[in-house]
Amino acid sequence: MGRGRRAPGIRALALVLLAVAAAAGVAAGDPDPDELERAFPIVEPDHGHTKLRLSEQGLDAIRRIENPIAVVGVIGPYRSGKSFLLNQLLSLSCDKGFGVGHMRDTKTKGIWIWGTPVEMDVDGSKVSVLYLDTEGFESVGKSNVYDDRIFALATVLSSVLIYNLPETVREADISRLSFAVEIAEEFYGRVKGQDVAFEPAKLLWLIQRDFLQGKSVQQMVNEALQRVPNDNGDKYIDEVNQIRDSLAVMGDNSTAFSLPQPHLQRTKLCDMEDKELEPLYVKRREQLKHLVASIIKPKIVQGKTLNGKDFVSFLQQILEALNKGEIPSTGSLVEIFNKAILERCLKVYREKMDGLGLPVPVEKLQQVHEMANDEARIIFDKQHFGKHHAAQSVLKLEDEIKKVYRNFLLANEYQSSKLCEARFSECEDKMDHLQVLKLPSMAKFNAGFTHCNQSFVRECVGPAKESYERRMSKMLVKARALFIKEYNNKLFNWLVTFSLVMVVIGRFVIKFFLLEIVAWVMFIFLETYTRMFWSAESLYYNPAWHIIVSSWETIVYSPILDLDRWGIPIVIMLSFGILYWRCFGGRRKRGRGSILPVYKNSYKNSTRPRSD
């Protein structure tokens, strides 16, 4: 009976002690477990949606964890059902779990965690499992760099990474994953040291589709990740295979799983109970839970597990490195590793090459190309991105430089052809002009020939010079042969005409008998020689002809006087001079005896009577 009286007092004392303990816990700052039964942001976007910043709400929830932490992260496209999937894995309704987009305004901006970890026994050790939700990529209003940072951060933090994809595996999905792994590996090395191996997460390809057409989802993923044969050396296929090679760090640390659609009316999923969902979906969902639980391992960094405080410190270091580092965008397959750095290197190369005034000799272009290429490589070696893909990046840089260099070679060849063609046309016009000289002169032709050839050799430069030199040589040889062929004929005709003109001048103009005799001798020699020896060509080998040619060349052309240009003005001046002399000069000299034999009208002074 005494014991029965004491029982209510004991119970009351126990209640008081519990209340005191609870009050002490609140005073000490321990959070209320009910307050942790919700999602917390740990990483949020800045105002420009380009960089990330930490959120203390979620970090405080993580810091309290003392057990080794394991993280299950879900990544995937925007509005692909990531938040709903996490709620299903945690057996939570949409109202209590992660915010679902079609239920209310999407809360998944950045990276969120579920505040209450799931306690599991892994290999005999107690592990606290955090479930991590990420902002979907490919949504509007964001840059690709922001998506890449979210993707890479989730890859670094997760122990199990669920890649949630609708229907099938696209090439863009593989490219994005490979780039995220590259970024994660790069910045993990920057934080922990380049010699520290990156511990990749267990990758789970989750394909949401209802049928597979005879293939398992694992076969579909394996086929998508296989290297593509490239016997023809196609550049696009080579880039595709480089992306697959970049996933080698994941090794065999991946698996695939298919999950059918829970119901056709996706916007009402949160209002449905399991009995309203597709039975196959419910069955596969439970299998997925067991699969995830079987592959969960604690997060390991540098060979050590992380508790809550260690995990937060690791997150801060990685996020700081991501925000400081320059990350190229993966907006498409060709925009892969080191894009921004490659562009800077190419810009330096182009600026060096643009300093050349085309056209230039090929040797000089090659020399400047090598100098610019070396400078671009030095910049790339200092700033390149990626630990394992530097070789591929170097190949891409070299390929891009080769493209630019080929363009300069083509431009140099075009400018060289344009310049040489202009000089060649000038020389061709010059030779055509020399062919039709009024007074044929071999000396003038040779002078023009030499000047044209020298100016062409001096001004025509570049790769087209050799071919144009051959054209120039043929043209000059042909022009010389044609000129020589016509030269003797024209000179012969000019000399015949000249002798007749001198006959007329000597007899009727100046009445100089000796000049008339010499002119008649020349005319008779030219005409009778060709008739006696059958052809004019034989005349051209006669020594007398050579003397005539030498005299002609001396009179017609010299560096001081070119009769072909000044012949007509000189003839006009001489005509006026002779006319003046005949009209005025002869009167003053009348009555004087002439020392030259000239024609005189002696019949006026004759005393002989006229016969008529």
UniProtKB/TrEMBL annotation:
GO molecular function, one term: GTPase activity
Region forming the signal peptide: 1-28
Any Pfam family: GBP
Gene3D superfamilies in UniProt: Guanylate-binding protein, C-terminal domain, P-loop containing nucleotide triphosphate hydrolases
Source organism, top-level taxon: Eukaryota
Domain called GB1/RHD3-type G: residue spans: 66-179
Transmembrane segments: 491-510, 517-534, 566-584
InterPro entries: G_GB1_RHD3_dom (IPR030386), Guanylate-bd/ATL_C (IPR003191), Guanylate-bd_C_sf (IPR036543), Guanylate-bd_N (IPR015894), P-loop_NTPase (IPR027417)
Keyword annotations: GTP-binding, Hydrolase, Membrane, Nucleotide-binding, Signal, Transmembrane, Transmembrane helix
Recorded family membership: Belongs to the TRAFAC class dynamin-like GTPase superfamily. GB1/RHD3 GTPase family.
PANTHER family membership: GUANYLATE BINDING PROTEIN
Protein name per its UniProtKB record: GB1/RHD3-type G domain-containing protein
Organism for this UniProt entry: Panicum virgatum (Blackwell switchgrass)
